[in-house]
Structure formats: C-alpha cells, structure tokens
Automatic annotation (TrEMBL):
BP term (GO), one: fucose metabolic process
Name of the protein in its database record: O-fucosyltransferase family protein
InterPro entries tied to this protein: FucosylTrfase_pln, GDP-Fuc_O-FucTrfase
Pfam families: O-FucT (PF10250)
Record-annotated membrane-spanning stretches: 76-97
Region (Disordered): 1-46
Biological classification of the source: Eukaryota, Viridiplantae, Streptophyta, Embryophyta, Tracheophyta
Keyword field: Carbohydrate metabolism, Fucose metabolism, Glycosyltransferase, Membrane, Transferase, Transmembrane, Transmembrane helix
Length: 582
C-alpha cells in the first residue's frame, strides 16, 4: 500500500496503480508545438481549440514574467508588506525633514523646499505679528472672566469610594517597604500606588524612602516634602502606616534593612499578581521590600483599590508646613497682582531647560554655538545614547510631530493669539530656562505682569528650598493649582497630576490649555500669516481645550489625570433636591 500523496496518481489499462511520474510542468513551458503560426512568444489558452496569445510589447512580457514568478513562488507575497514599508521609509528619507542637522549656523544651507512646520521661524512670525498685538494692548478684555464655558459643563463633586469605619483594622500581614524614585510627581505616584498595594495585601506601610536620583539630585526625605503626620492620620481607617520598622522586626534582619528580601515586581502588575506572588512572601517573612516601585501597579484595578489611590492622592498627601506656608503667601501675592482681572491669573508650566532642549534633539536659532552646547549636554546626561551607530535624528520631523519644547516666545504668541492681552497676569513654573535672558525677553514684552518664584518670593524666603528641586517644584505645583488657567507645554508627570488635581477641585473641569503642538509648528513656520487667521486658529484651539476639560477616565488611563468617575460623583439636580450619583 502507498500513503496518500499530494502529487496525484495515474492508472494503467488493467486498473493497477503505478507510481506517478514527475508532476506536470508549468503551463508557461508548454509550447504550442501543433500550432501552425506558433512562435516562441505564444502559449495555449484553456480552451480545447487552443487560443494563441502573443505578447505584443516589452511591458507586456515583463508583467507576464513577474506574474508568473509570483504565481510559482507565492511565498513572495508574505514579504510584500515589508517591501512596501521599506519603500516608504526610503521615500521619507529623501524628504527634507532632517534640515538643520546639516546646518552649520547659516540659513543658506537650509533647503527651500523644507516642509511647513519643520523649521524654527517663530522669531520671524513674532516680528510680523507684534504690531497687531501692540494695537490690542490695554483694551478692556474680560476673557479671564469667561475663559471656560460654564453652561456646557456637568458638575462633579469629590466622592471617594471607601467606607469610613471607626472599627480597628484587621491584624496586619506584615510590613511593606517601598522606594520611590524620580522627581516630585513620580514619587507621588509611587506613594499612592504603595497605599493601594498595602490596602490590597492588608499590610502595614512604612513611610516610603526616596531614592537619590542622579538627574534630580534632591536628598529630601518624605517629611521634607509631605506632611508625614497628616498622611498617617488621613489613612488611619484604611491602611496602617508607620514611620519606621519596629525595633523587634528590624532586629530579625540584623538591623539592616538591606537584608529584607527585595521582590522584583514587573511594571503595571495586576492585583492578582500581588495576591499570588507578593502576599505569600509577606506572610512568610513578615516584611518585604519592593525597590524600585515606579509604575508597579496597573491602571485598571477594582474600585476599592482605586479608592485607596484617590484617598492618598487627593486627601492624605499634602505638602509639608514650610512649603504650604510660603506657597500660600505666593498665591496671595499673585492674586493681588491680578486685581485687574478679578484676582485670576494664568500659570504656565514651561519646559525649556537645557536638558529638555538637548534631549528633544530639536534645533532653534542658536547656530553652531547651540549645537555644541546641546552635544555637550547630551553627552553629560546620556552618555553615548545619541551617538549610537546608525541612529538617525531628524529635527524637522520631530518639530512637525509636535515633540519640540515650546519656547517662551511661542507660549506668549499662543496666548496673545487666543485673546489674552498685555494686562493678563502670568505665573511661569519652570526650572532654569536655557539662555533665559534671550528667550524670556519676548514673553515679558507680551506679558509685562509676569511672575516667577524668584519675583514673588524674596531670596531669604527661598533660601531653605534652594538646592532641593522637589521642594521648589512643590511651590510651582501650588501656584499652578490655584490659577484660573493652567497651560501645559511638554507633558510629563507634573502636568498629568496637576490636570487631575484641578479636575478634582474645579467640579470635574481641568481649566487647562493643552495646545495642539503639531498645529502650532505650522503656525509658527508661517512668517506671513495674517493676524486674523492666526487668532482664529488659536481661539479654536482654546475652545477645544475647554471641551476636553471634563473628560472621563478610560479603562487604561490614569485616575491621577482623570479622577472621574473613580474619585468623583456626578451631581444631578432634581426638582426637590440635589444629590450625588456615580
């Protein structure tokens, strides 16, 4: 007997089965030998009569050969998408997105066909539009009183989904020790997630330790930034928190916290992972460490775990007394300085520090000097990262994609285009601005009532905070939280937490301008744009920020940015009463 063969079989006259000869050849090679007009260029069609088709031209022959090859080697089709993508990348590489990387300080080397939005030409745009801005100075402008459309908003109120209970918490399963790293709001994220995990595991949380980050270089402890006593008190009914490990527990580990097992937990781990992997170790050993603890809990978790996040972020974490005291004074001074607009002011989170500009790989208007400074800054902070072999950096494409940090000049033009005049009070929250004297001058020209930490507080008041980036950031955070309008320019944890905090305080609306930086790149690369067109497009951008201000949280989003509906309840008004509903 013979096994099944995909090659087929032929029968003899006696009905016996004989091995099949070689499979038939491709139709392409079956020449029409019986055709009187047959030539090498034809082949027989499918009919019994045999229709000869002649290939009339070179193009027809070429297409025929390609189709035949593909038919015989159908696996080629698997590579078609890859070939298409490769061709597109090759095509993109011929475009002028990387202008400026080859520039050596002169505009003449920039191609005239550079795509709109790929070049930094904001100074030319400002020079063109400044006369129109000047003409609108000192006009009666009530925009600050009516920035946000109150009529279209749904009202939300804080509503944390946790049961308040005076009963004692159950016996703890052990001590949880975490290490928070990063800047102020990265640490805040780790603390809130640690509270949630401690609640999940019924663990006693030890006040988190802060890792000394090589970038932030801030040696502050938890109590230097946050009110430690209030944190413990606010969580007392939901999570046990202690300042340090009890002496008897520490003795079991030879008085060395490093001897406590450090569990390596994957990023964005689920509650199930903690219950199955961490809890058994916690019960067995009595204490566990998780370091680092950045982004170690998934966004999508049950409501009771989210409730612990809400309580810790919006209720338990408040800044230390020295920070609160000075911040309150600065807010009061900012309100007094904004008397012409009813005490309302704009806050801007400006990310134009040297490291930020260097990391972006964007090119501005500093020529060779800027390029050298950025190369040095990149090498200092990210050794070799930007000099890897075959790494291609295209500043033009980065700018068109809206990834370049906005300069102070661009922020000012954006706000003036939206309708804020020169009488508007502006607070700038920032670190050390790159070439501040040069880049801040036009922003001050457009908004003379501009303030920073250094102008609102005296050197003596700021002295205890100098050299501590997280404490200085806490001052900025408070000033931004209490502003009528908050402007974010570059993303990051600072605006993400602040937007959520503002939603929590302002009935669900962020009152935040989130600019479309792709659109801005085009506007700021149009030196001859009409003022009316410039205003129209920026006011549409402001309206879009207003509409998006009350967004609800999506399943995979962070409640620190979108506190509705996990941390807030919708306020529904009826004829007889006003009640909250989730």
């Amino acid at each position: 007997m013979h096994g099944y063969s995909r090659l087929g079989r032929s029968s003899t006259g006696s009905g016996s089965i004989s091995p099949s000869p070689s499979p038939p050849s491709s139709p392409r090679f079956r020449r029409n030998k019986g055709s009187s007009g047959g030539g090498g260029g034809g082949f027989r069609g499918g009919g019994g009569g045999g229709v000869d088709v002649k290939l009339q031209s070179f193009v027809e022959r070429w297409v025929y050969v390609v189709i035949s090859a593909v038919y015989r080697r159908r696996g080629i089709l698997l590579f078609a998408p890859l070939l298409y993508i490769s061709a597109m990348l090759l095509y993109m590489g011929t475009m002028g997105f990387d202008v400026g990387m080859i520039r050596k300080g002169s505009e003449s080397s920039i191609g005239k066909t550079a795509p709109v939005g790929s070049l930094y030409r904001s100074p030319q745009v400002f020079e063109h539009l400044w006369p129109y801005m000047e003409a609108e100075n000192n006009r009666s402008n009530d925009l600050m009183m009516n920035v946000w459309n109150m009529k279209t908003r749904q009202s939300w109120k804080p509503c944390i989904p946790l049961q308040n209970s005076e009963a004692e918490l159950p016996k703890s399963n052990g001590f949880l020790i975490i290490e928070a790293n990063g800047g102020l709001n990265q640490q805040r994220l780790s603390i809130c997630d640690a509270v949630a995990v401690a609640g999940l595991l019924n663990a006693t949380l030890v006040i988190p330790m802060f890792h000394l980050n090589s970038v932030w270089r801030d040696s502050s402890k938890f109590g230097d930034i946050f009110d430690e006593e209030f944190f413990i008190y606010a969580l007392r009914s939901h999570v046990n928190v202690v300042r340090e490990l009890p002496e008897d527990v520490l003795t079991r580990f030879d008085n060395n916290i490093s001897n406590i097992v450090n569990l390596r937990v994957k990023g964005w781990s689920s509650p199930t992972y903690y219950l199955q992997k961490v809890l058994p170790k916690l019960v067995e050993l009595g204490a566990v460490r998780i370091a680092p603890f950045s982004n170690r809990l998934a966004h999508a978790v049950p409501s009771d775990i989210q409730g612990h996040r809400c309580l810790s972020n919006f209720g338990a974490l408040r800044f230390s007394e020295p920070i609160r005291t000075l911040a309150a004074k600065m807010v009061d001074r900012m309100i007094r300085n904004s008397s012409s607009s009813g005490g309302k002011y704009i806050s801007v989170h400006l990310r134009f520090e040297e490291d930020m500009v260097a990391f972006s790989c964007c090119i501005y208007d500093g020529g060779e000097e800027e390029q050298k400074e950025m190369d040095i800054a990149r090498e200092r902070s990210w050794r070799g990262k930007f000099r890897k072999k075959n790494r291609i950096i295209k500043p033009g494409a980065i700018r068109m994609d809206g990834k370049c940090p906005l300069t102070p000049l661009e922020v000012g033009m954006m706000l003036r285009g939206m309708g804020f005049d020169n009488n508007t009070s502006v607070y700038v929250a920032a670190g050390k601005i790159y070439k501040a004297e040069k880049y801040m001058a036009p922003l001050k020209q457009m908004f003379p009532r501009l303030e920073t930490k250094d102008t609102l507080a005296s050197p003596e008041e700021l002295a205890p905070f100098m050299g501590y980036s997280s404490r200085l950031a806490a001052l900025d955070y408070t000033l931004c939280l209490h502003s009528e309008v908050f402007v974010t320019t570059q993303g990051g944890n600072f605006p993400h937490f602040l937007i959520g905090h503002r939603r929590y305080f302002y009935e669900g609306h962020a009152k935040t301008i989130i600019p479309d930086k792709r659109k801005l790149a085009q506007l700021f690369d149009s030196p001859h744009i009409r003022w009316e067109s410039f205003q129209k497009q920026l006011r549409e951008m402001l309206h879009h920020s207003d509409v998006k201000g009350s967004e609800l949280k999506k399943p995979t989003a962070s409640l620190f940015t979108y506190p509705m509906p996990d941390c807030m309840c919708k306020q529904a008004t009826t004829k007889n009463s006003t009640k909250l509903r989730r």
